[in-house]
Amino acid sequence: MSKFIKNFHTQFLIDIYFSDPKRVIKIAKGDYLFRQDQFNDRLFLVKKGKVRGFGVNPDGSEVEFFIATPYMFVGVNSFFSISKTMTNIIALEDSELAYIGYKDAIYLAGGNASMSEQFLPVIVNELTFRQTRMMDIGAEKEKTLKKLIQSEKLASLGQMAAGIAHELNNAIAVLQKNSRWLGEQIAEIIDSHSPDMLHYFRTGIQEGRTLSNYEIRARQKRYLSIFKLTDDAAETLAQTSIPESDLTKFGDKLEQFAKIISDYWETGATIKDMLIASQHATHVVKSVKELGAQRERRDQMVDVNETIREALTLLQSDLRRINVDLHFSTLPSIIANAGELIQVWSNLIKNACESMMNAKTVDPMLEITSALEKNKIIVTVKDTGPGIPAEIKDSIFQPNVTTKKEGLSFGLGLGLTIVQRILYGYGAKIAVDSRPGNTVFTITIPTGVTNG
């Protein structure tokens, strides 16, 4: 399902493909358009009425994915990926839907664009909608969890969260599958139309957003000097992870191509963000469900620095107004579960951001360092926020701790409970030193972790 975007391109598609009165079906209230796991070879546009998309969990409960009203597309995923449907579609009221099928003629629009190319904005919008919906579901369930935690013992949390995990996993699976498919489709389109730009798309999807604010500013300053670019062009290119050597071949035309190069890279990096987010969401669900239960398998060779970078990628929106300073040492890989470590760093970083923003800290700074001392990895997360009040400092790892004082929220609570549980499972330690303007969490992880 994809929400109608009122622009010339989408209206053009509707006028061309969905204006034939012979290709309109009517479904009565309570009737199904199609059911989950059914093959679908049509793309629908709601003309009148309202339809609902939902999934069914193994326990028989339902999870609602969307409500589609006039000028919204239905069946985007199954139609373009040529796969079975992942949702049930039922009419909430008498409805009319226009449709196109695989065998319908493709309007070439004066060129040789395939149907997938013509509908690419609709496909992207579909994935964006599903990701937003998944996050909304997660936010709703998080609120429910917090209420439950206040009234129940920690030992029962895993059982209470089981149903929530089932609901979220459906949405997460959709996001993962469609993100990968979209990345493959876009790569094929770029390769056939602009092969010279495929490298920049692949750099974005492989590397993602790994640069800190400090690194971006340094690159921008250098590009202004060596390439003689305008401020806008230098800033645009500095935000990408494209190697400097790949830019020099444009010579004095780099200014002209800066936005184009960045757009291809941004498209790849966005797909990378969606994949990381879906993987992280999976681990969050598992960690909440298994809180107090047996630990997850840890059988990967993991780069701790890379897990920190992925956590930073997930929290881009939280970090927009924060100065980030990274100091990473070369570290040995350890046997671990990458998702668990990403969750640890995400909680600590988000806590720091919330603390500084809620306190309106002037020139907020987040500093993250990693170092190797003998057989231990030391990671510190430091912020310049208001500090943790002394009266709650000793209890911040408890799930029911009060995290507000004099109107300020310190972003603690359940997150730190999970952080502590994960780290203890590795034989690791976490310590905190806090005063106004300087709060430091220090994590010590043994490098000789064995798979249990």
Structural commentary:
With 452 residues, this protein is α+β, with helices and mostly antiparallel strands. The protein folds into 3 domains: 102 residues, Jelly Rolls, CATH 2.60.120; 176 residues, no CATH class; 149 residues, Histidine kinase-like ATPase, C-terminal domain (Heat Shock Protein 90). The protein is built from 15 helices and 15 strands. The strands form 4 sheets. Strands 1, 2, 3, 4, 5 and 6 form a 6-stranded antiparallel β-sheet that branches. The protein has a 5-stranded mixed β-sheet with strand order 8-10-11-15-14, covered by helices on one side. Strand 10 and strand 11 form a beta hairpin. The longest helix is centred in the middle third of the chain and has 37 residues. It is globular, with a radius of gyration of 25 Å. It starts with 7 loop residues before the first helix and ends in a 6-residue tail after the last strand. The N terminus is likely disordered.
